[in-house]
Amino acid sequence: MKLRSYQRATNKSIIEVKRYLLEMSKEIYEQDIHDIMNQCIDTYQLKKKLNKRKDIQLWLFMNIKKAIDHSVSFDDIENHLIYMNHLIQSTYQPLLEYKYKLFYYILDQVSFSVESYCLIRHLLKFKTKQIEQYIDNIEDIVKMDEERYHYVASEILLLEEQYKQAYHHLPYVCFDHRLQVYQQALYNDSPRRFENLFEQTGFLYALA
Fold this sequence. Notes:
mainly alpha
């Protein structure tokens, strides 16, 4: 799976959103979708106008839901979830119910990891400052051992570029190849913290 921070993953231009919408609307509501898109210069306008049409709202939700349910890779699922959030009103009740069920389905089917987190974050009211709280809440559900908890938390926080918070967990994990890709970013964020971490743990490191 291609791992990206939430900000990078969800940063879609209006052109990208319109292109996705056109792909989803071939032969169905095609002219209506074209008319709406031609009136919109940003994603906010597009989302608002689409959701005013309750028939289009329901059709679009069901179409994206079907695409998610038939996806075979995490990358495809995440892609559809991102566009679902861009296009469907967040308070739409069928969407809320679907996200709730999908959240627990994912946790039931796969172990909690940075990969499954990348899907789950799109099912939440995501706020960067609350990532550790999300992790703790999920840990209450899936029950990880302490080492696994700190490792997953470290990897997620590093992915989301929350380096200061990651240092709460990094001293308790094995700094393996998956975490080593963040060495330069950690050093750039705070050379002092970085040096202290490796003095404390005794791990070796090599910067580019």
